[in-house]
Structures are given as structure tokens and as C-alpha cells.
Structures
1.
Amino acid sequence: MEADGLTHTLDFQLDIREGDPSLLTDGTLESRRVVNEIFRLDKEGWDWDDIEDAVVDRSDHVQNTTQRLVAKATTALREYYGDEDHDYGRPNNNVREPFPIRMNHGEGYDLSLDGDTNDIHFRVSALKHNHVRGVLTGSPDHVEQLQTALQDEDDEWRVGTAEVVPVDGGHELHVNVTRTTADVAPKEDAQTVVGVDINEDCVALAVLDEDDIIASVIIDYTLIKERRHEFFTMRKRMQQNGQTAFETVLQDREKRYVHDQLHKISHDVVEWVSQFENPIMVFEDLTDMREDIEYGTRMNRRLHSLPFAKLRSYITYKAAWEGIPSDAVDPEYTSQECPRTECEHRVRANRRGKRFKCVECGCQDHADRGAGISIAKRWMSKEERNVPLLKILPGFQQVRREASGRVDRPAATPSLVGGHQTESGAGVLR
């Protein structure tokens, strides 16, 4: 199946060889001023078309860059007005934090490939009439993808918008590259079915074919929930003490942290799934989940401890980039259903936290791994595939993703690629 186009964001460091690096800092501060003005005028009730005309006239960025900033800011406003959950609150002014410089290729920035060295040269308009030039450096995979896009003569690749992003006292260039003709394998050709169960603290993956369960893994990411709770507590204390000046700063930091972690988790998931033959990834269809059930304040906060839909979109997007299709099934009772095909008894008493024990047949399993198995089996049944009996469930691999810090679980670190399985193995992904 040919997709309309898949976009991938490639990250690069800037080896500046011409121009003052401080211009990039000035440019990100000017971007913040422009975005602040957009939010201020929106609060005053301005029409968005009039806002664009006003900020373009006053901006110290080139016109196209300012237009890209307007587009990004109004997109955030549009999401706020159209999202009843308002997870992060209304986009608001932030006078202290720099904001990425957003640019179009060939206008705000330009890339070229050196025919002799194969280096990727860049030019960035940090401000009007002020440029920095140099060479991009980055991971071999990202460099190779961008080189391929720049060498393309058949219109199969497109280099799009990019952002200069402040990172650890310096700056990176994040470039959007689109593969305009991306081939995703047909669902009917799938030979292995990967059931994906996304939870607030882990994602469980179970791989089945028509004969048996092939492999399974549970990737823990409890740190995201813990960090978001820390951010929530800090904001709450600020509100109680009337110290709201830094509240928007905390919101921005939280959003950047979660965004970065979700991308890393989705990369790990797709990398692990890619080892299997002709896989398809199957998720629970959670459309309108929050609208169907009335939750209390505490449960709503728990649901927001991980953006389930966003993680799923990152996984499916990265999977499609690798040619892996995805689908969804009815989520009802997957976490309460016995994974053994001959039983499949469903009752709430089967599950106690992460522990699953079927009250009918006595089958025991990790509850999230069992849900992944049920999701895969449900898709196979829907597609009229042979569903394996699964009389005996093998052990599973369990790893823990941590950004940094002490590991308080066994530190043997099995590779995620290769289908290694242990009865209760635990490792660390960095």
C-alpha cells in the first residue's frame, strides 16, 4: 500500500563556521517575542489574519519565518479551543524561555550537499540580514536519510520545515524530511501479529503467529508518570501561594520532556517489532474512551499521566516509516480476559493490578502481557485467521526505560532485538 507521504524529524548539531553563534540565541528570543504577541492579540480578540499582518510587520525575522511562527502558534490555539480536556491549559505568554526558530527550506534556511566530501552545509537566517553557516553533524542514520533526500532527483523525497531548537546551552537543527511515496505492507500479508497494550507506566507487546506466541516484551517507563506528578505538584503549590510567574515555564518544560520521552519509547517499540517477519501492530481502539465514561478528578489526572493517543500515533507513524501496517480492535475486556484460547474467561476478579490469575482455569500471567495477547488474538479472529491455542505461555522480557539515574532493579541488560526471553528479566533502556 502506498501512503500519501510520511514525515520524519531528523536532529542535527550545528558546526558553525561563519557568523556569530549568539545570533541563534537572539533569534530564538525574537521567536518568543513574536509568539507572545500572537497569544496576547488572540486574548484581545483579534482575527487571526489580522494578527499575522501585525506581527509580520513588527518582526525582526524574515517574513516567511514569522509566518511559520504564526502558523505554529495558531495551531496550538486551535488545539486548545477544540480540546475539551485542555491537558496543558491555554497557550500563554512566556517571557523567559526562548522559542524555536521555525523556517521553510530555501527561505529561512537552506541545505546543500558537498559533492566532494558529502558534508551537509547549512545556512540559517537567525534574524533579518544576519546568517550563520556551517556543517551539520548527527547520527549516521539521520545524516544518511538527509543525504538521500538532498540527492533525490525523482521527487520521492521533500525537505520541509526546520527548527533551530535551544538544547543544553547550544542549538540543534531539527529538519522535517518527507518520503512522498512510502510503501506500507498490506495488512492481509502479515505473518506475525503484534498485540500492543499501552498503559500509564508501560507498553506490553505480544507477538503471535497462527501456531503459537513467538515473543513478548514489557517496556516500563514509570519515570514519565513520576515526573509529570512532580510538575503537577509544583504548579499546584505555585497556584496556592499565588506564585504563577513560572507556571508557563513549567508547562513548557513538561511538554518538551514528555514529547522527547514518547519519541524514544516509540522508537524502542518499532525497533523491537521490526525483527519479526511481516508484522502488523494491533492496538485497542480507544476512540472516545474519555467521553464514554465519567471519571473523577483523580482518575482524569491518572489518564493524563501518559498521553495514550499521542504515544500510539508516534508508534504507528514510525512503524509506517518502516513499512509496518497497524490496525485496531474492540478493547472491551482485553485486560480481564484469560489469554488461553481454550478458556478466555472474562471477569474483573481475574486481574489484581499487574497480576493476572484466571479464576476459571488458574492461568497466571503479567496482566499487561496477557492483554497484549488478547488484542492480537482478537485481530486474528476478526480477520478469520487461525488463532493459536496457547496452552502454555512462555516467559517474557521486561525492560525499564530510564532517562538517567540509579537502577534499582537487576541491571542485566538484554538486547531488545533478537527475541531474547527470560522468565522475569529486567533491564534498562537508555
2.
Amino acid sequence: MTQLFKYELKKFIYNKKNIVVVLATLLFLGMFIAYNDYQDQQYPNKMYTEMTNASVYSSKMVKNIETSMKYMEEGTKKEEFKQQKKFWDNLSTSSLILSSGYMKKDYKNEDFVKEQIEWYHLVLDGRKKNYDLDPISRLTIRTIKEQIQKDQYIVDNHIEIMNSPYSCNSLNLFNLLFSDYVGLFIAFPFLLLVFDIVAIEFENSSYKSLYTSNYSRSTILISKTIFIGLLIIAYIAMISSVFFISGFKFGFGNTIYPYAVYPEIYPFYQAVFLMLAIFVMALMSLSAITIFISYWTFSSSVTLVTILSCYMMVIVFQQILDYRWLYPYIPLCYPFNKDIIQYHGTIQSIIIGLAMSFVFIEISIRSLKRKDITV
């Protein structure tokens, strides 16, 4: 077994493609941090513009309603228009207060956050009444509720305010990294590394010498599986070390800062732990699927095409079907771990991830034993 580990390690180190993948991943992480740092600096100006636009739009709506009401007689319709006018008046005033706070860089105090909570409540009310909130159409009801919940938690517990969602402290970077498609982009390089571990021998038929050696085929496959497990640990450690180093510049974050996944609130340390647990399951199950395809087909090209197709299916599934409650039961969706946490699917994803990994490895071993391999 020791010799097999040495073989895998040498093959991994001396494979130039692996070095390129690792360097590309580090470059991606560096660009990811730089992008969020830039967005963090631009956030006050962006929010000032957005709130100003919302205030101008609200004032315009008030004028339109006032014009319409001039030609109305008293009745249900006019009373409805009065309620709408009151809504737009309040939204305009609140938006002006917030835009002033962002302009003066005075947006990291509890009074500002309380005003922001009131603004989100107004927007939520407008969403429920189907008002045309054109300048702030990006805010879904779920997003609004999450923001209200998080801001209220900050105020109630007097937690230091991190107003910008792009803050580059280490804990928030973990949050941003494992959200939506970014999780897929960080999982894909690892799959390329796994691909070379289990399929590279098929490119030049060197697998025949390996699988006809003194080691049993099951021992060879188990050694590769253990090596992949160690690689997962190294990969997570690499990502963590990059964020740890960035923490000396941007800060490490507050472990009790709220991570809102409606309708729950998690402390940051707990959310990061859940994210890492699900992400490890994603890497394990996807690695097992790669091993299964490689040893079933003995074709590196078929394996790569199949894995890429699976990735495309995940993206299409997430966009079209959008059944987030199913994500804990589909390992290919594990990179979308924010949704899994929302539906309390962490335990399910761990159990299913481990079960699928075991099943695919077991099938791969049985398939490998039946293969007719001659030098």
C-alpha cells in the first residue's frame, strides 16, 4: 500500500496539468478576493445611487397618484389611491434618509440599521401588494425577509455591523465562496485533479502494467480512494489558508455575526462549518462518480465528457426546476449548499453523500475485478 501511495504522489506531483490546475485555483481565489474588495469599496456609492433612484421614483409615483385623485370622487377607489400615496411617501422619505447615510459614510450604526429595517418592511409590504417597485426589482421576498431578520438580530444583540455583503473578512469570504455558482467553480478544479488520478493511465495504456502487478485491483482502487480523501483535506486546507492569509489584511470576522438563511439565523462559525461539511460531501460523491465512470468505461474522454455533462445538468436543474428542497438528496447539487442549509438538509446530504460514495466505489471495485486486462 505504501508503494502505491508513493506512486500516486509522484504521478500527481510530476503531472504538469495538476500544477496548472492548482495555480489556476489559487489565481481564481486571489481574483475572487480582489473582486469582493472592489465591490466592498463601491458598495456605499452603489447603495447611495440605488436609494436616490428609489426616492425619485417614489416621488414620481406620488405625483402621478395625486394627479389621478383630482378626477376621482370619494369611494373605495380613491381610498385605495390614498393608501398607495401614503406608501410611496413613506418609501421616498425612508430612501432619502438611507441615501444620506451612505453619502456621509454613516451607515455602520444601529440607528441607520433600524431605519434600514423600516425601509425593508416598506418594500416587503409593496411586494405583497404587487406595487411596481421598478428601481429595486432585484429584491425578492425571500431576500427581503432574510435581510430584515439579519438586521434585527444585529440590533437586538448589539453586534458590530458589517453593512456591505462584500466585506472581505475571512468568514464572509467563506460565505460568498460557497454560494450559488461560485461553489461549482471551486469544485470543478478538484474534479480535474481527481480525473487525472483515476483516468490518466488510460491515456497511454500504462494502466495495464499497474492492474496486472502484484497488487490486487481492489487494493489499487482503495489506495486511490484514500489518496483522493487526503487530497480533499489538502484542497480545503489550501482554500482556508488563502482566506486565513487575507484575514491579516481584511480581518477574520466575527464568529457570532448572523448568517441569515430564512427563516433561520446561524452564527457565522456554525454556518461555515455546515458549508464545509456539505462541500466535503460534494467533493467525495463527485469523486466517487468520476471513479465509477472511469472504471466502467476505461475511457478518459468519456469520463470527462460525462462529468462536464453532469455539471451542465446541475446548472440547468438549478435554473429551470429550482426545487431547492430536493438539493440535499442530489449530490450533484451540493455546491449550492446555502439552499441545503435553508431546508435543514445538512444531515441528509452527509448521509446520502457517504452512501453514494460507498456504493459507487463498491460497484467500481466489482467492475474492475471483472475486467479482462492483459499486458
3.
Amino acid sequence: MLLPILLLPILLMPGLPAEAQTRPPPPHTPTPPPAEQIVAGLSRDDVDITTSFDGSEIIIYGAIKREKPIPPGEPLDVIVAVEGPARAVTVRHKERRLGIWVNTGRVSIGSAPTFYVVATTRPLDKILKPELDQRFRISIPLAMRAFAGKSEVADVVPYTEAFVRLRQESELYRQDDGAVLLAEQTLFRADVRLPANLIEGFYSTRIFLMRNGEIIDSFRAPIEVRKVGLERWLYRLALDQPFLYGIMSLAIAVAAGWGSSAAFRLIKRP
């Protein structure tokens, strides 16, 4: 009977009561789901770029799932953002000096989406707080993630504004206020038009459910944009075997030039 008595002080940690050492850890309490949740889908999750590709359209639709009646107060708002693959971009400013256009400044953007569209139920600045915009980077100016290296200019704002303006003129950046249709605060739909000058890669779709200026739920879905057919073969050839691609391009150019010259000689012949 002496053995259990001698082992008891060894099994118990000094400085802690016995009940504290044998008490199990508190169970993990899961975070309750939001009172209103997004259930959404896309009309298609891939886009094929072919020789006749002149743009496409993605329909983003969904519903609001809730267990209780619609709460009173401000109505729901929905924000849909579609973002293309990010790339590094250099924005240069040119001035004419002594009859010659020269670069007088540049700003390197470390990561900027190649395509970005924001569609909303109401004007974005009316439904999205600036602090939430800073956190989730929803508006077009904040879609650019970072600047690469030390800036050569004192003020980068004119450069980023010019960059956004050029992308908007090319229909690569767009803010469509009121383009999301919301019916009875339950069903929503947004038609996002994709231009013809898309690049290959994975595009991200984000949906934010807003009430009283706060984000109460969000949803993400990918869209794959890929080249198919001859475009795919040429694209992969240029990336995997650039020397062969260059030789082939040169041969095609020489053949086209020779063919054009022969055609003109036949036309001029009496």
C-alpha cells in the first residue's frame, strides 16, 4: 500500500491543485454563421479564347439565405468584383523637350490586375466605408496592391490616375454602379461583360453582402480564361520555344513579303 502513496506526489505538478491538472480544456466554440448568407453561382466558370473571340459575358446570380425575417433598417446592397491576373506595370510620363519626347518620370506598380470590374446595387461610395475599402481593396484605385521599389517622383497619384484612365479606355477597368439587380432583398443578378483583349489565367470573383455599411457575408468563385486551338499552340510555342517561334515568325514574314511582291508584279504586268 505504500507504492501508490509514494507515486502520488510525483504525478502531480508542483504549484497546481490536483483538480486544475485533470480538468479538460474548454471546448472550442464555433463562430456562428451570419444571419444572412450568400448562395451564388456563375453562368460559366471558364472562357475559351479562339480566333473569333470578340468578348464574352458572365452572369453572376444568387440568393440571400436567412432563417429569420428581413431585419428592418437600411436595405441590403451587393457588390460584385471580378479581377484578372495581376502583373507588374511601369507608368511613364513623357514631355516634349527641344522637339523630342523624353521620359521625365516613372512609377513602378508591383501588382495591378489586368482586368477589374466592380458592379454594385448603388453607388459604391454610398454603401462602402473607406476603412472597409482599405481592408478588402474593392474600389479600382485600391485594386493595385503595391508599388515596386522606391518611387522616382514625389507624387504618384497622377501616374496611378493616368494608368486607371488608360485601362478604363481599353474597357479593362470598369465601375458599374447600379448594375447589380436585387429583387425583394433576396435574389440578385449581375451581368459582367468581358472584353476581347483578355489575357489567359485565373480570374477571381468576389461578392460582398452589405447592410448598414458593414460586410455581413462574402463569396468567392474562380473563372478560368484560356486560349484554345491555334492561339493556344502559338502561345505555348512562344513561351516554351521562343527561338523556334522567332524563326517561324521570320519565315512567315519573308513568305508574306515575297507573296505580296509577286502579286504586285502580276498586277502591273500588261
